[in-house]
Amino acid sequence: MPSVQVTTAARVVRPAGLVGRVLENHHALGVMMVTPALLILAIFLAYPFGLGVWLSFTNATIGQAGRFVGLGNFRYLLGDSVFRVVVLNTTLYAAAAVVCKLVLGFLLALLVNREFRGKRIVRAIMLLPWIVPTSLSALVFYWIYDPTFSIITWALRRIGLLHGFINYLGDPNLARASLIAANIWRGIPFFAIGLLAGLQTVSPTLYEAAAIDGAGTWQKFWFVTWPVLLPLTVVVTVFSTIMTVGDFQLIWIITHGGPANATHLFGTLAYQRAIQGGFIGEGAAISAFVLPVLVGAVMVSFHYLRRE
Amino acid sequence: MRRSALTSTLTFYLPLWAFLVLLLFPFYWMLVTAVRPNKELYNLSLNQLWTSHPTLQHFQKLLFATHFAPWLQNTMLIALGATVLALSCAVFAAYAVQRLRFRGSGVIGVAIFLSYLVPPVILFIPLARIINELGLWDRPAALILTYPTFLIPFATWLLMGYFKSIPVELEDCARIDGATRVQVLRHILLPLALPGILSALIFSFTLSWNEYLYALVFLSSTGSKTIPVGLATELITGDVFQWGPLMAGALLGSVPVALIYSFFVEHYVAGLTGALKE
């Protein structure tokens, strides 16, 4: 008898009626709750994604739907000397910037992972380059790279290392290096904070155990820190690679793709051809070249996320 | 003892200071340029790193002789609108995928993650056509509706990490006491996930505030632009650069996000750690 009483006391009273029952069905409620998010992603992400792929096979221009031209745009682009420079630029830009950001960001994460006075404030301000609007910091770099009033030139002349002036954005290779430097500056905090978060998940007991086993600083890093950090490092690097390959604003604000189209990436050339020039199909084809990078990145991150 | 002090200086304080100088110099340069009078800015024989005659003339010019005020208003409106829209979608999506385990929830979780990886450079050309067909060209709504495409995926994943960290037992107890699923979400999960929601809020707001490409493409008239686009396109007129007002604008456009972060940095780092652990 007592057991019956308990059951009665714990009997759940839930709203009856259709609405109540639907809200209690986890399938129905689940579908209802993801619908707004999925709707927005479907209309403004999935649909344009598909439309972009379609447009890259057409000769659409602004105001004209265009017709299917097969691989015409891609064939044209591969023969276009400006586009070939873009492929080289993107490779160089992404490789150089991501490697430097990874190394420097990792160093910074190791530095701020220890206890010292002012730790909190340092961790807060080291994020600044990443959180302020990139277009605004790009303007500062534009000013830092001014051919006449550059602060770098001024400082070098002041200490006697330089006599003339440096035209940072006037020479193709110098312009590329200048853009890469600006990108590295912006991206260091992203790596630093991501890897710092990873470093903090390494349990101190692991280090103690390693110390008891006689491990030195280097061995602790190699056998304790690194294995924990590796998957996170891969994910952060993959994200950064996508963002760097898909960069637009730094380039567009600082050089507009110049001098003489030498610093374009896929995004800036696509903008120039499609939005400014009106060749929608060709621009969409240029953007489509980012897709292989994206697919590769997705495969790598899936591989590591599954292992986790 | 002295040896260890020297070592820690060389291997710790020196590199740390080098990093800080490198990372902060552009902000210092922004500030100094914004307050130096024009006749000092363009005179190379003077010390460029300092001024003894600070002036507000550039700020005055920026605020009263350019469209900075409407840009600020637009940026605020768009960032708030996009954040509210994205978060109200993301909270429910995260709860549903993480807790309800309905049919297809796994696939939807993965799809939302994948959509976070799609960079705007792939989307802006077809999106321009869609925005045009919807009649949203040059309107704030164009951005309020498109920013959630990168805000929702991030916020959903961040919140899923938070929901996951809340013990299921709490929910079960409430369910046994007769709470509906909606009540469980409202009275138990949402209050406990508040730090996560706050991080998502900060993150979404700053991402929207900082966005450049969509704002550049979808807005065309001077008065309807946002700060990031307006400054770079309207204050660089031909070969005449107005570096003073430009840097003043860059400073004013950066300060709000910097302030938000400095207030909430602990939450933010905690949120990011949660998301990465996920």
Short description:
With 308 residues, chain A is mainly alpha-helical. Chain A is built from 16 helices and no strands. The longest helix of chain A has 32 residues, at 81-112.
Oligomer: heterodimer
Rg of chain B, alpha carbons: 24 Å
Following the backbone from N to C, one meets helices and strands of chain B in this order, namely HHHHHHHHHHHHHEEH
Structural class of chain B: mainly alpha
The helix-and-strand class of chain A reads mainly alpha
Binned strand content of chain B: under 5%
Distance, first to last CA of chain A: 50 Å
Please tally the β strands of chain A and state the result. 0
Q: Quickly give the CATH architecture of the largest domain in chain B.
A: Orthogonal Bundle
Strands of the biggest beta sheet of chain B: in what spatial order?
1-2
Considering residues with a beta carbon less than 8 A from a beta carbon on another chain, report the largest interface and each chain's count.
A-B, 103 and 96 residues
User: How many helices of chain A?
Assistant: 16
